Amino acid sequence: MNLKRIDFFNPLIIVAAILAFLAMGYIGSFNYRFEDPLNLEVIFTIFFSCLVFAVGAMAVKYKIEIAERKEIDFLSEKILVALVVIALLLQGLNLVLIGGIPLFNSVLKSNATTNIWRIAYPLFLIMINILLAKYYDRKYLMLVVLGALVFGLNGYRTSVLGILASTFITLYYLNKISRKLGIIFIAIMAAAIMAIGYIASQSIAAQHWTLNPLELVFYRAAFTLEVFEKIIPLAGTANGHILSMIFSSGSPRTFIGEYVLHYTVCLTSTLFGPVMLDFGYLGLTIQMLFMGIFLGLINKLKKGIGVGIYSVILTHTLIWIETGPTDIMIWFLYLLGLILIIINFSHIKLNKN
Question: Which of helix, strand or coil describes residue 34?
């Protein structure tokens, strides 16, 4: 088998990541504060979701072809660098206006996702990946590290993971990942995610954690899956309220906490939890089929800026495995992918063979 010919970041990595997350949560449900391991309905529902996603992704793989096309070229290197720097400055301004570093203060963290951050983070994420995809230069990796540090001060692991993982995938498709660089990147990602999660947990005054950083990762997976377990008996009872909150005002994760656990807490509920609570198994099936087809199609458009866009969308879909698709800002990335599909529509054709 020629490993160089394997696309390790094709859409089916979502299935592998879901199963890995399930395994971590199952192990965590045995080892920590949970009375019982995850029940079979949770496991079967997740396997069903993986199957539906895989069907959508594989259908695109075998049925859709992309004809040769001219690369879209409307963003110069200087403009992209300027936009990346603007995003960093906006996040710096955000920290100043907040009045401190949210990573070390749970009260500040609860107010860290301001409108400035909602502009700065996706702007940085998208532009740094497009910059690398179109005008790769090793010096731009320093901007990646700087971005991970600056946005990591907000205290959210997902920001650091989004930046580091998406740029890693972009570099992979550019054939810029040597074995040494790959090991360094993965080590930095793992260390940064565990460190931020651990430091942020220690800064919560009302809670006293005794778990070490690695144990905390397994615990979080187990707790998130336990929330999904509690959602399943309530499937379809929210009647689309969570979806409406995503595209309007309010906090979908806080609503889930109040609806499922009956107290005010912001909860992650897996990739499957929000849609399951809103629309039941039918909604879950439609969501997973859509994501499989969509990522399968974007995967076929990996050329030039398409590499950066695919990397960003894939990364945040992976992040959604834990957090759930409840952020309108991240759905904007899917809109960006839709724009890419529309631009390339004339080059997409059905393979009847």
Answer: coil
